[in-house]
Amino acid sequence: MPETVRIVGVPMDLGQNRRGVDMGPSALRYANLQARLAQLGLSVLDHGNIPVPNPEEQIAEGGARRLKAVTVACQSIYDIGCQCLTQQEFALFLGGDHSISIGTVSAAASAGPVGLIWIDAHGDFNTPETSPSGNIHGMPVATLVGDGPEPLVNLGYPGSKLHPAQIVQIGIRNLDPAERKRLSASGIHVFTMRHLDELGMAAVARQALDRLRHLPRLHVSLDMDSLDPDEAPGVGTPIPGGLSYREAHLLMEILGDSGRVVSMDVVEINPILDNRNRTAELAVELVASLLGQRIL
After folding, report:
1. What CATH homologous superfamily does 4-290 map to?
2. DSSP letters for 172-204
3. Which of the residues are catalytic?
4. Which of 52, 66, 70, 233 is deepest in the core (most CB within 10 A)?
5. pTM of the full structure
């Protein structure tokens, strides 16, 4: 378990069309994130929010909408992430849409080999050529393996940040047609909801860690739409049939037990669509489970 956690808010909804996820960091803070982590004996530092322009101020066109603005924001994320790693702090990024992970994961990769555990209903493996919408929040995994808009592929330092063998996805259940073909051929190991139903979460979590056993460090990217909408209604793209409350907690607990997680992002919380901040409160509980909260 880390000794110091630095919270970084990224109030960004540049990577999608639907407004609201820019309020995710505020919702998580309102759900007493800092106090909850302090109860675990952690030293918690809140860095505040990275400045992000409003989507209305940006031109949204082309195969990668608002590319320039997303690149600038992700560069700021990258810079702060590198600072956290240098100071041996656990970096906890609060999104914002999932395009922030281009910055967070690039920072984690800058310090040496790292594995990525991507917990999401979606594969986020589109490119500008395959994306039906052009929204960058559907492209971060492809970008991280070097197949995306050049300014984002080269963010922080030139070239891809991860090899597909360094990525495991969990909870996938909604893919675009071209994205499905690309992901199947990519070499990324994907645990769909069928795998979870057949094997159970404990087996999936341990297999995920085993597949990344050659990597000393892990980054966890948690999209709250990975959970079933009955558990987490406040997300922009809810997909039925997701993780249950206990499955999500068990996954966080097993990942935390590994002692290898060095950074995390929590994304896609939309308080406008939520019920009394329920989704943010659940996210805080899941972060606590990853960082040491246990039943006994």
Report:
1. Ureohydrolase domain (3.40.800.10)
2. E-B--HHHHHHHHTT--EEEEHHHHHHH-HHHH
3. 98, 120, 122, 124, 137, 223, 225, 268
4. 70
5. 0.95
